[in-house]
Specification:
The complex is a heterodimer of chains A (575) and B (105). Chain A has 575 residues and is an alpha/beta fold. Chain A contains 24 helices and 20 strands. The longest helix of chain A has 23 residues. Chain A starts with a helix and ends in a 23-residue tail after the last strand. By secondary structure, chain B is an alpha+beta fold. The radius of gyration of chain B is 17 Å and the shape is globular. Classes of the chains: A alpha/beta (575), B alpha+beta (105).
Chain lengths: 575, 105
């Protein structure tokens, strides 16, 4: 290994190298094994240095910088490690912004490295100069511009530390070209902390004790869990907690897969297109226990009519989430694993059979009114739900589902069955169309032994369709499913329900996807009839390399249940 | 509206871009900054921001937390009007011909 050689050659642990080499060496020191990126003028010295390190660190050439960020996100979400992406200055850097904003709102650890024009040209409107520090500031956890070679190792060490610690998030380092060319004595020191930043607030045990008291008194307690459970590796601690306290638990879409779908206390998905029971009973419980979630408006519906009857306990690592949307009675600001572990010790062993049964009864109602028809349609028109159902039936435990944004996403969130953590990767807070294909590539590269299934709509697929080129070049065996309804389905659904069926700009005239995908050397299949679906899904799952399955689904199918905007969660509609 | 006048004291690391990091928190929530002063604090390398805004009690608490959430912010406090000592300073200069573009040699 290069690192060892350097250390052996030089007893003082120092080596003279360029800033560009220091970038690569620092990434290796931080354990990065994959970089997603796209070269260009201002980042060329780093790419030149990467050329010497192809064994230690692999660079994946995406077809667009947005693809690089989403791939890094997919990698980070699947593995729990920091995703790394790289781009040049100007347009390269601005193309990263959507992915960075997505990572910020969904708390995904990313380190983004951008090249910048030489420092003497800063502020002169030089070729490909943009103020990427200014542009990225509102959507990064932290960012910094480096103009001197000797500052590079420290900046990268700090970036990784900030990205992965506390509530994770994206960090951007902008490095001027002269800093990349400059020389330094490389001596890497991992970053261990800074005075202005406390990633893990100390657990206030009295708060946990207050929470336990409320839980022990509650007759109808209800747990809401989010991605915080996954981010703090608290899946087991969470399960132990709910099993001891016997509390029915529902998740946000980013909380999916933190607890296996079939767990006896899992009562489904919260939110606008979530399940009937958890939405209805939010307004009937006497205690809400929110774990690592942030009461997004898609989860709460009308806040004024949200769980007013209930006391609220909020467990979160981020103090700014407390009382942001929903007022809490007890706030526990700490890492979820720590707080849940202590909380479990203090809660009484209980079963809330009758209360749990209330959920199951409403679930039956949803089953008869919505789910049966969605999963086994009585018409000849294929539904999105039945495709997801088919994938569930035919696949094993190592599946990772990656989705895009829209109707198919809600269907995947509602109907896919998750057996292990980090097996659902979707753009939650930002709702970024085009997320799926590159994120699936990143997830597959991070978890090569898992079956990665990308579920997309025909709209979102075309937003980052160029990443088929990445699959071609890297031979990434991603399974792609496009649920084609020739519409921007979710917007069309809203137009049908709230805009008098005025389908403004939602109908899509699509190209021949089969021909396009074949052009990239990927095995494809198109299914128009239900009779062919099972065979096609089986073939896709068994196929060694990448596979593209296009299923023609109902053009005007809707996602139900639904909490229309402005209404309360308990006013959820089944049709 | 229930808007009242509040003063925020924000202590940050002294580095380029901090002013932007702090002010975008107000911009995003469409809150107008009535006055702003940044200077070095008693501790070397730490800046003190003094910011006056009109907003609600509920909002000022959220803003304070958002400020503290910034990695390079050490601490943020808010004070209501009763805790504030407001000072006005008038500086006057006898009128003379102004030439803003040229240096006076």
């Amino acid at each position: 290994m290069e690192t060892l050689e350097i250390k052996n050659k030089n007893k003082s642990n120092q080596k003279l190298m360029t800033g560009a080499q220091a970038v690569v060496q620092s990434l290796i020191e931080e354990g990065a094994d994959l970089i997603f990126g796209y070269p260009g003028g201002a980042i060329m010295p780093v790419y030149d240095a990467l050329y010497d390190f192809e064994v230690q660190i692999k660079h994946v050439l995406t077809r667009h910088e947005q693809g690089a960020t989403h791939a890094a996100q997919g990698y980070a979400r699947a593995t729990g490690k920091v995703g790394v992406c790289m781009a040049t200055s100007g347009p390269g850097a601005t193309n990263l912004i959507t992915g960075i904003a997505d990572a910020q709102i969904d708390s995904t650890p990313l380190v983004c490295i951008t090249g910048q024009v030489p420092s003497h040209l800063l502020g002169t409107d030089a070729f490909q100069e943009t103020d990427v520090i200014g542009i990225s500031m509102p959507v990064t956890k932290w960012n910094v511009q480096v103009t001197k070679a000797e500052d590079i190792p420290m900046a990268i060490a700090k970036a990784f530390y900030i990205a992965r610690s506390g509530r994770p998030g994206p960090v951007l380092i902008d490095i001027t070209k002269d800093a990349q060319f400059g020389e330094l004595n490389f001596n890497y020191k991992p970053f261990t902390g800074m005075r202005s930043y406390t990633p893990k607030p100390e657990l206030d045990k009295t708060k946990v004790e207050q929470a336990a008291e409320l839980i022990n008194q509650a007759k109808k307690p209800f747990v809401l869990f989010g991605q915080g459970v996954i981010l703090s590796n608290a899946e087991q601690a969470f399960k132990t907690f709910i099993e001891k306290s016997g509390i029915p638990s529902a998740c946000t879409i980013l909380g999916l897969s933190a607890l296996e779908t079939n767990h006896y206390l899992h009562v489904g998905l919260l939110g606008m297109h979530g399940n009937y029971a958890p939405n209805k009973l939010t307004n009937e419980c006497d205690l809400l226990i929110a774990v690592g979630m942030r009461f997004d408006d898609r989860v709460t519906g009308n806040l004024e009519k949200y769980a007013n009857q209930a006391k609220v306990i909020h467990l979160d690592i981020d103090p700014s989430e407390i009382d942001k949307n929903v007022k809490t009675d007890v706030a526990v600001i700490a890492d979820a694993k720590e707080s849940l572990t202590y909380l479990t010790k203090l809660v009484d062993k209980k079963e809330h059979k009758e209360w749990l049964n209330q959920f199951r009864l409403l679930e039956q109602e949803e089953q008869t009114e919505v789910i049966n028809e969605e999963l086994n349609p009585t018409t000849h028109i294929m539904s999105m739900g039945e495709v997801i159902h088919q994938i569930n039936e035919l696949s094993d435990e190592k599946n990772i589902i990656v989705t895009d944004v829209g109707q198919h996403q809600m269907m995947a969130c509602r109907y896919a069955k998750f057996k292990q953590t980090r097996s659902m990767i979707t753009s939650g807070g930002l709702g970024t169309m085009g997320f799926c294909l590159p994120a699936a590539i990143g997830a597959k590269m991070g978890k090569p032994d898992s079956q990665v299934i990308a579920v997309m709509g025909d709209g979102g697929f075309q937003m980052t369709i160029q990443e088929l080129g990445t699959i071609l070049q890297c031979k990434t065996p991603v399974k792609m499913v496009v649920l084609n309804n020739e519409f921007l389905g979710m917007v069309r659904q809203w137009q049908e329900l709230f805009f008098d069926k005025r389908y403004a700009s939602t109908h899509m005239v699509n190209p021949d996807f089969q021909a396009i995908v074949k052009g990239y050397g990927i095995t494809t299949k198109k299914v128009d009839h239900r009779a062919d679906l099972k065979t096609a899904v089986t073939e896709m799952l068994a196929h060694e390399g990448s596979y593209f399955l296009e299923v023609m689904v109902g053009k005007e199918n809707n996602v139900f249940p639904m909490v229309p905007t402005g209404l309360s969660v308990s006013e959820i509609r089944l049709k | 509206m229930n808007d009242k006048r509040f003063k925020l004291s924000v202590f940050t690391e002294n580095m380029p871009g901090m002013l932007n990091r702090v002010t975008i928190i107000f911009t995003r929530r469409k809150i107008n900054i009535e006055s702003l002063n940044v200077s070095e604090s008693e501790v070397k390398g730490i800046s003190r921001f003094k910011i006056v805004i009109n907003t609600s009690e509920e909002q000022i608490i959220k803003i304070t937390k958002q400020l503290e959430k910034q990695v390079d912010v050490l601490k943020a406090y808010y004070h209501s009007e009763s805790d504030m000592l407001l000072q006005d300073l008038a500086v006057s200069k006898p009128a003379e011909k102004l030439n803003l573009l040229k240096d006076e040699d």
